[in-house]
Amino acid sequence: MPHTPPAVDDILTALVERFGPVESSVYRGQTRVVIAAEPAFEAFSLLHSRGFDLLVDVSCVDYLEYKGAKQRYGLVYLLANTATNQRLTVRVFVDDPEPAVPSVVPLWEGANWLEREVWDLFGIRFEGHPDLRRLVMPEEFTAHPLRKDYPLQGRGERHNFPVITRDHS
Amino acid sequence: MSIAPAEFDATSRDAAARDEDYLWTLNFGPQHPATHTTLRLVLKLEGERVVDAMPEMGYLHSGFEKIGEHLTFNQYVTVTDRMNYISPIANNVAWHHAVEALLGLELTPRCKYIRTIVAELARISDHLLSNGAVGLDTGAFTFFLYAFYQREVIYDIFETLCGARFTNSYTRVGGVSQDFTPLVIEKIRTFVKTFPKTLDDMERLLTRNRIFVDRTKGVGVLTKDEAINRSASGPVARASGVTRDLRKDEPYLAYGDLDFKIACASAGDCYARYLVRMQEMRESLKIVAQALEHLPSGPVNVGSDQRTALPTKQQVYSSIEGTISHFELSMANRGFEVPFEESYAAIEAPNGELGFYIVGDGDDTAYRARCRPPSVLHFALFPFLIRGHTLSDVVAVLGSLNIIAAELDR
Question: For A149, B208, B250, B333, which has the most beta carbons within 10 A of its beta carbon?
């Protein structure tokens, strides 16, 4: 059984004081809170100032075919406090069309490439990101392949790529 | 006759544009021996000094996370082998650690110790290669061969253990594919006995070697605050004074029972990262030795009532639970049940925090299998570390970050 990180009750209280009731749950010792997309940056600033100095990961889940899901995209921010070893999972849900959330790069520089990857594979815009380019897929690519409506075997995008000859390289 | 660049065409262009005349762009990679893997850097140089670097990745992107949504938890372990292929068994351990966290499975004590031992052997093998490659890139070829020979010994141990040298796919949900045999234990014992001598030789070769020290000390300095803010982990963060190590901070497997230290340095340069890796190999060896001496007896996989690990042949033929469990696990439309939940679990992989965020949707295939790869965050550090250094430092910094493109791109 994995180690259970220290409780984060004080942080939850601080979030409730500032933003009203927040949805939170615990699974296998991991605390998750759901934050709305509008005040997300403020909430992250609060968490950052309360000691969550390490952004472990930013990723996303496409809940298109998921049972009981209300909104399509659920962003996952894994935060950690390097002094107390507390961990907190923050969820921000957004929906089609044009899903967008504020970027957290001003708080954690490490978010830069992680957010680029989420933009690349899920097509979620991070507003205020300094350099929101694709990370793993080529620039000419038009789709966002980790979305659930993108097939596993691809659509045969190869013909969309320009052929570069030796003279034009 | 030479024309001073300042006089040349001075009337038609402003000062900023003239400054640009001194800059030139160098394309480094994607196929270059010093990148070791397929990644690309576009370097903006002023003479030999790097003004800026633009890393580019994605050349090895093969959609591992997408594949993870279509393979079962036991099948996907073969894909995790191909992420950080320098220490594949550590990825196996990380993947099934995350799966078991989602399922809430408690491993048997023997399995915990076995996984600890193989993960630490993987760490030694990873650090041997990454330090060896730093040596190789800065001109110490002999050092690299010393390191690579010992990697072969570890490959031999893994081959005896599970039949595969490189892509081991060793773990299973709730257990491992093969139990330790006396021969494996003997081979690991021999390795524990003989390896410190090589480690001493390696330290004598390089640690105080003037050329190596000159090329790595003070190069690519990462401060503690920057390391945390830029999400560095593993040896890269620990060389900058971050004392975070999941083996101590969030003890998993058998690490809570074992006595070992965390190697840290405060300089944050390439040399500190080299030293941290060297020291970590010694600590890993201590862990392996202790875990081997205290290896618990008993079954290696969880019981057949858990319905996750394949039962032994004896259980299949002599008990009804074993037969049912074997049937359920072998049929394509059965498998085990997974809660509609999601969780994140990470281990301290050789390169840093390697975690998986898994979303379960009822069956034994993940709805989403996000991998948190340490290499991506370390490669993002690169432009920050290299600015102001010379072109020859590029390989030293790149090597000390130990970027594995297969893990980078997934």
Answer: B250
pLDDT digits (tens, 9 = 90+) for B231-265: 999 999 999 999 889 998 888 888 988 999 999 99
Q: What is the pLDDT of residues B159-194, one digit of tens each?
A: 999 888 888 889 988 888 888 999 999 999 999 999
Q: Check if A140 contacts B (Cβ < 8 Å).
A: no
Q: How many Å apart are CA B45 and CA B48, to the nearest integer?
A: 6
pLDDT in tens, B12-35: 556 666 666 678 888 887 877 766
Of B57, B104, B377, the CB nearest to A28: B104
Does the beta-carbon distance from B342 to A114 stay under 8 Å?
A: no
Task: Tell whether A99 is covered by a domain.
Answer: yes
Q: Specify the pairing of strand A125-127 against strand A100-102.
A: parallel
Rounded Cα distance between A93 and A64, Å, is: 12
Concatenating the DSSP letter of every residue in A18-48 gives: HHS--EEEEETTEEEEEE-STTHHHHHHHHH
Residue A102 has pLDDT above 60, yes or no: yes
Judge whether A51 is closer than 8 Å to chain B, CB to CB.
no
Q: Is B355 on the interface with A (CB under 8 A)?
A: yes
Query: A20 lies in a domain?
Result: yes
ipTM field: 0.89
Hey, what CATH class is B64-409 in? Answer: mainly alpha
CB-nearest to A3 from B67, B251, B340 is B251
State the CATH number of the domain containing residue A60: 3.30.460.80
Q: Which of B40, B100, B231, B242 to mutate to test the interface with A (most CBs of A within 10 A)?
A: B231
Q: Any alpha helices (H) in A66-108, and if so which ranges?
A: none
In the sheet with B49-56, reading across from the earlier edge strand, the strands are B23-28, B40-46, B49-56
Please give the angle made by the CA atoms of B198, B203 and B208, to the nearest 5 degrees: 160
Query: What value does the mean pLDDT take over residues B42-49?
Result: 88
Per-residue pLDDT averaged across B347-362, rounded? 91
Provide the pLDDT for residue B19.
Answer: 62
Range(s) of the domain holding residue A23: 9-158
For chain B, the farthest-separated pair of C-alpha atoms sits apart, in whole angstroms, at 95
Work out whether the CA dihedral A123, A54, B407, B68 comes out positive or negative: negative
> What sign does the dihedral B64-A104-A101-B382 (CA atoms) show?
negative
Domain with CATH 1.10.645.10 in chain B: 64-409
> Which pLDDT score, from 0 to 100, does residue A169 have?
66
Q: Do A68 and B61 touch (CB under 8 A)?
A: no
| Paired strand residues for B323 | none
Q: Are A12 and A22 in contact (CB under 8 A)?
A: yes
Phi then psi for B225, rounded to 5 degrees? -60, -40
Sheet-wide strand order for B366-372: B342-349, B352-360, B366-372
Contact between B357 and A76 using a beta-carbon 8 Å cutoff:
yes
Output the six-digit token pair for B316. 């299949």
- The alpha carbon of residue B367 is apart from the nearest alpha carbon of chain A, in Å, by 8
Of B402, B361, B406, the residue nearest B137 (C-alpha)? B402
Q: Which of B309, B302, B283, B344 is nearest to B116 (CA)?
A: B283
Tokens of B211: 């050329």
